[in-house]
């Protein structure tokens, strides 16, 4: 399937590994793919996102913000859990920074998470539906927006991008 990818789409897929590595993550998710898509300013995906008022920094902010309904310090304090006390106790036992992200590893392969694999599969379906021959970054962006329960789709939703708006923005970008 990778042979059907245009060069910039291949670069985005390999760029997702760099994004995951820089964040200290153990797996490449659809959110990493999304950040890599936005990183190349002249790609179809980045131009489409820009037309929707979204760029790489906005996506990183959406990725790093707590999800709706996720636990935060105030919610935990309301039930008697003091995160600062927990952190102090863990760091007292295991050393300073024990709860922080691990340092990025260099050189080792990072596997794809199931949602990233689904995005790659979905991108092929998008290409077939459009009767295109190559998968470009626009197809990957649309695929990210279509995969249910994926980190990338959640980040897009936090940034105000729906599957319909992503598809329309990609089509408009290609037509321009």
Blueprint of the fold:
Elements lengths: L6 H17 L6 H10 L4 H8 L4 H9 L8 H6 L4 H12 L19 H17 L6 H10 L4 H8 L4 H13 L1
Pfam family, one: Clp_N
Protein name: Clp R domain-containing protein
Organism: Cellulomonas rhizosphaerae
Overview of this protein structure:
This protein has helices at 7-23, 30-39, 44-51, 56-64, 73-78, 83-94, 114-130, 137-146, 151-158, 163-175. The protein is mainly α and 176 residues long. It has one domain (2-68, 104-175): Clp, N-terminal domain (Double Clp-N motif, Orthogonal Bundle). Helix 1 packs across helix 2, helix 3 packs across helix 8 and helix 8 runs antiparallel to helix 10 (163-175). The two termini are 28 Å apart.
Total tally of structural domains: 1
Describe the sheet with the most strands. none
Order of helices and strands: HHHHHHHHHH
Considering the protein shown, what is the CATH homologous superfamily? Clp, N-terminal domain
CATH fold descriptor: Double Clp-N motif
Query: What is the name of the CATH class?
Result: Mainly Alpha
- Coarse structural class: mainly alpha
Low-pLDDT runs of 5+ residues are none
Choose one word for the global shape: elongated
What is the CATH architecture descriptor? Orthogonal Bundle
Measured distance between first and last alpha carbons: 28 Å
Fraction of residues in β-strands: under 5%
Radius of gyration: 18 Å
Mean pLDDT: 86
InterPro entries: Clp_N_dom_sf, Clp_R_N
Protein name: Clp R domain-containing protein
Organism: Cellulomonas rhizosphaerae
Pfam families: Clp_N (PF02861)
């Amino acid at each position: 399937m990778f042979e059907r990818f245009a060069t910039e789409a291949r670069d985005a897929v390999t760029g997702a590994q760099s994004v995951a590595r820089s964040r200290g993550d153990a797996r490449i998710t659809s959110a990493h793919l999304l950040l890599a898509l936005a990183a190349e300013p002249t790609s179809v995906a980045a131009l489409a996102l820009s037309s929707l008022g979204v760029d790489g920094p906005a996506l990183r902010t959406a990725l790093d913000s707590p999800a709706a309904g996720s636990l935060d310090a105030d919610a935990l304090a309301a039930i008697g859990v003091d995160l600062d006390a927990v952190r102090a106790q863990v760091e007292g036992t295991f050393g300073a920074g024990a709860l922080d992200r691990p340092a990025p590893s260099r050189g080792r392969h990072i596997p794809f998470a199931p949602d990233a694999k689904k995005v790659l599969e979905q991108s092929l379906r998008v290409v077939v539906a459009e009767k295109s021959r190559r998968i470009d970054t626009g197809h990957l962006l649309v695929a990210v927006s279509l995969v249910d329960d994926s980190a990338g789709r959640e980040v897009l939703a936090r940034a105000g991008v729906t599957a319909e708006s992503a598809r329309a923005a990609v089509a408009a970008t290609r037509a321009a």
